[in-house]
Amino acid sequence: MISNPVAAPETPLAPIRLLGGLAVAAGFTNAVADYALRGGPRPVSGAAISLEMLGSVPHESIWFGSLLGAAAMPLWILGLFPVYVGLRPAGRWWAALPVLLFGYGICVASGYHGSYVLYGSGLALQAALPEAVEVSSHVDHLMQHHDGLQAVFVAPWILASVLFIAIVLTGRTGFPRWMALVSPLLVPLIVSLAAALPAPLGGYIRPGIGSLTWTLFFALALWSTWNGADPPVKQP
């Protein structure tokens, strides 16, 4: 008597594991870039880690952080493959929608990160020429660009996070329900809490905490789907 063969997983696991691992590495790399943007860890309060402080950071450090972040952040998209695999048992379209929104936000956020060298240069010029009206106007334009870019990627990230939480909580995905607690919606909360930390903890923790929270999300998605996440094959 010949037993029924077990169906092979729909998605090859080795490439997914590799892609997810690269995204985790890129998340840590982006955290390094975040610290470079602030001139490295500093023994200051979390509130002192502001956009305005870029004017006092050496240009070489901001340039390196901007370039490194712009190069690393697009690799975050690779971490969305395990996310898709984990969500897919709930339906391909339900899995694709938050993944596409996350991916779009990552694309915009990469340009946002690479623009930090411009903000730093403008703020340093304003610190050197505080009375120059033209410089002040130039910095205002840079801040307008910063705020606009931030709005463009934050909105889809929030929507994608809410969708991710709702889908995971249905219990129909390959993720445990507690994965809803580590969605990227956690990032603004964690960053706000880090901003309230006193010196020196704030300066050591706040710069990279956003990227590290994303890295945790990618790592847990990879761990949860390491052996696949498709529904079990029903035996006749």
Task: Summarize this entry quickly.
By secondary structure, this protein is mainly α.
Would you kindly provide a written description of the structure presented here, covering whatever features stand out?
By secondary structure, this protein is mostly helical. The chain has eight helices and no strands. The chain has helices at residues 13-37, 59-72, 80-87, 92-114, 116-128, 133-169, 186-195, 201-224. It starts with 12 loop residues before the first helix and ends in a 12-residue tail after the last helix.
Task: Name the descriptors.
disordered C terminus; 236 residues; mainly alpha; single chain
The average pLDDT score comes to: 91
Shape descriptor: elongated
Count of DSSP H/I helices: 8
Residue ranges: pLDDT <50 for 5 or more in a row?
1-9, 232-236
Topology (elements, then pairings):
Layout: H1 13-37, H2 59-72, H3 80-87, H4 92-114, H5 116-128, H6 133-169, H7 186-195, H8 201-224
Helix pairs in contact: 1-2, 1-8, 2-4, 2-5, 3-4, 3-8, 4-6, 5-6, 7-8
